[in-house]
Amino acid sequence: MRTALSAIIIAAIAAASPVLAKQAVSHKPAAAPVARSGQVTPPRTQNKAAAKSEDEKEVAILAALDRGSAATPASFPDSVGWRLVEDPATGAWLGMPEKLVPRVSASRMGGRWSSAQGQIQVETFRFSEASLPALFEDEKKAARRQIEASVLRPDLFVIAGAQGLKSFFMRAEARGSEVRGVTVLYDQATEGTMERIALAMIGSYSAFPDPSAPAPPGLRRAVEYGSAIVATGDGDLVTSARLTDDCRSITVPGIGHAERIAADSASDLALVRVYGARNLVPAALSGESGGAVVDARGALAGMIDFKPAIVAANGDSAHEPAKRVPVEAIRAFLKAHDVSPPTVADATASAEQSMVRIICVRK
Known about the structure:
Structural class: alpha+beta
Order of helices and strands: HHHEEEEEHEEEEHEEEEEEEEEEEHE
Strand content: 25-35%
Number of helices: 6
Helix content: 10-25%
Oligomer: single chain
């Protein structure tokens, strides 16, 4: 309507003044060039910056894929809470900024992690029957999406771009007809911080981990097994604090459910209590995590503390040797929490009877 009104005004002025009409015609915008048959119109100069940005994002994606699970960023601050986790819904492994996405729940097709206000969202998905190339094309055409970069390989694809007011990265992998993947969305206002984290997540993602292969360094499993030392016959156990971190439930097979009462991260000790336990054989104080060290008399001399592998800045894994937590440290820890273990070993009991298995199930 505004264009029509402008034309009427110009026509009226032109009728009154041929000079003004000539000036008006000379200021008309130039018509766009018409491409001849078989020719392609060259791209406009204003798109060069956007094309360069897309190329840079694709290079960043390829670099993240090349680094793979060794891409654990050593320079991420503690406030990010970077950790490799196992997704119980799909069986995949991926790096997760746990402190940024503390809310965990189930989604329709997998698992979901999100920040308190939803600025950051992570969702995994699994299709038992799907075509990877077809899914790639469908996801690129999804509503409200603007694709900025994409990579398609025979066994995986990565798509990055904008979705509404959020930026996103998606990675999917196929094995046979099954497809598993992850989508990372975050507010565009956090692009400066989150793009690097999202790339690390995409790079670390492993859709079909080999169950017989060693777990990658620092992996936080959805279900983890370990050992505990019986401290009292009433159900007080000593184990690794790291093993019992973030457990939704702790179970002692054959005995019952347990609860973590206290923990000391400096010594990596945790006090776990099995309620209703009777006739447990306590170890005399003179895992796997929490493995016991027994002296020649059968008394507990300490506990083996297995340190997880640390990923160096260059991507190589460095393993700290296992060290023994001395019995004095265990005694002091138990005393601080009003637990009094025996100091003399039961001559009729073996050291193995004072060890129990524990299972940690995380959310």
